Amino acid sequence: MPTHARKPLVSLVVPFHDEDEAIGAFFAATLPILDSIESVRFEIVCVNDGSRDRTLDRLIAVAAGDPRVRIVDLTRRFGKEAALTAGLDEAAGAAAILLDADLQDPPALIPAMIEHWRAGAEVVAAKRTNRMCDPFMQRAAAALYYRVHNALSEVEMPENVGDFRLMDRQVIEALRALPERRRFMKGLFAWVGYRTAILEYTRAPRSGGRSKFSGWRRWNFALEGITSFSTVPLRVWTYVGLAFALLALAYGAFIVVRTLLFGNPVHGYASLISVVLFMGGIQLIGIGVIGEYLGRIYHESKQRPVYLVRRRYRAEREAAAAPASTLLQFPLKRTHAARRRTPMPAGGNVAARKASFK
């Protein structure tokens, strides 16, 4: 039996959206690290999330020269959460590592993740200890968001822990079994639980290009996270309504008593208009909060797929021997059907994993 057949397979899942400028640096930094790890085999699942530049062409060129690279080309931009979902659906390994292409999360942590996984951790998450490369407002907003989310939600998200993590096959299957379409992956990672090890690192600047996550997208992403894991905003407006009702009752009683004792002199309408406008604003905000939750129910009820795949690319086995001058022209095999996977047996995977490394 070949030696590599006894090694477990680990899937590296990487979403790409308009990362033409970062692809070269990403593979130059990542492939040598993967090659240096002899205890496991790797596949690299590249998810093209509706890129409009040459990202797909460059990924095809890389796949033609390295049979470990597979490409999942989505029909349009579905967003990073959907791209990660697609990558996990395609991953065939006993574990999967989620990694961004901008190299802000260092591939150099992959060997340590593998070691913790071998030791029995089912999730190995990477925590940013220093985010000085990010703008001040972004850091402040992120810190505030984690505090607000953890205060409102029953599921606590560890602060400064992003998508960069290793997950065992049973964790992947648990995530894939969740039926929701509007997916907030960081929250889902925290929700499924499992034994988790934390690795700390200092975040680096982007290797190329610029972030595609605008301020408006970040705001909507934050709302998505809160409404996905908390109903506290709905309860808050119940309490706000109750408080205003009690105030109105007390004020009404005061007016009745004052009128009976002192008469009812006519006043101007300025204070009345102010109160009406204020209450109208409060009501509209409450309706907006309810609308957020109704919108989620509406989207979930349609049961549309999280993503659609236009095409899958994978190089033929002979691609590894192809000369560099033919990489762009090398034929790629197009696959349509998802591969059948045999899930790791629950409860016995840690012992089996340790045995596979002996």
TrEMBL record:
Domain Glycosyltransferase 2-like residues, every copy: 11-175
GO molecular function: glycosyltransferase activity
Transmembrane segments: 236-257, 269-294
Cellular compartment(s): Membrane
Top-level taxon: Bacteria
Endpoints of the signal sequence: none
InterPro entries: Glyco_trans_2-like, Glycosyltransferase_2, Nucleotide-diphossugar_trans
Keyword Glycosyltransferase annotated: yes
Membrane topology according to the record: Multi-pass membrane protein
Keyword Cell membrane: no
Gene3D superfamilies in the cross-refs: Spore Coat Polysaccharide Biosynthesis Protein SpsA, Chain A
Keywords: Glycosyltransferase, Membrane, Transferase, Transmembrane, Transmembrane helix
Pfam families with a match to the protein in the record: Glycos_transf_2
GO cellular component: plasma membrane
PANTHER family: PROPHAGE BACTOPRENOL GLUCOSYL TRANSFERASE HOMOLOG (PTHR48090:SF1), UNDECAPRENYL-PHOSPHATE 4-DEOXY-4-FORMAMIDO-L-ARABINOSE TRANSFERASE-RELATED (PTHR48090)
The protein's name: Bactoprenol glucosyl transferase
Native source species: Burkholderia ubonensis
Lineage: Bacteria, Pseudomonadati, Pseudomonadota, Betaproteobacteria, Burkholderiales
